[in-house]
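Troubleshooting log. The previous structure file for this entry was overwritten by mistake, so regenerating from the original sequence record. Sequence copied from the archived sheet and checked twice against the printout by T.R.
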Amino acid sequence: MLAALVPTVLMTAIGIILVASGGSKSLSIVGGILVLAFCATALAGYTMGSIFVTRGANLASIQNEFLSSVSHEIRTPLTSILLFIETLRADRIESPAERQRCLTIVHQELTRLDGLVGKLIELSKIESRPTAFERHPVRVADFVGDALTTFEAMKIGGDAEVAEVRADLDPDLLVYGDRSALAQALGNLLSNAWKYTRPADKKIEVRARADRETVSISVSDNGVGIPRLEQAAIFEKFERGSAAVAGGAAGSGLGLAIVRAVVEAHHGRVEVRSQVDHGARFCIVLPRYRAAL
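Regenerated output below.
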């Protein structure tokens, strides 16, 4: 590209000189204009080529980084599974209790791996076909209720801790979209709020408010919070906040990426406000739907 750029710049200078010194000589003026037109075309081609090359390099870098992250996330449970299976095959554990413990860990790692693969497939579908969602008028209270029902089932099946979950909703708010997908996105936010709040005093609040153009559904918690410098990155694939990692909470770093993909497919956005040790507030902002009168 530099080999093409330098001659083009020189010819541009020549064209300017021809036009400036042409006086009444129309041939010099026409020649100068033609040279300048040629140089302008060459410069435009150079600029477009640079843009495409840069974008191609960025895309390759993103793909390599994604593959590296996927490989790391999959390799970790596979390594544990292979280690325990090899130990069991070699009959190195004599205690029935220890053998049962190994089998339990293998089952947990397989469940984790299955969940990771499922989320990757789901995220890939959302990003590649955002128009595949059903589009209907949906009451906000309905998909929030669906998410809360799934959330309660998750608590019963897993953690036995009692949390205070409050819902403050306007029953008349409507959006236009896919009820199950929106419930899933909100459910991911509820799951995160549950995982990253203090075990002894979990407090989670769901609120829905609206202005003339948008509806805002927020999930607030009293958890560990997210440093300001990390708040944009946590919506990327496999990214997790440092406080969440330090606390040992389970997660793949895909939940918020799915939330963002679902919300953006509905022409909305996700916002976060948080301070370390003062909880977090995630807000889904969607276009408001008004029924025709």
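The helical segments are 2-21, 26-89, 96-128, 140-157, 179-195, 242-246, 255-265. Archived copy saved in two places this time.
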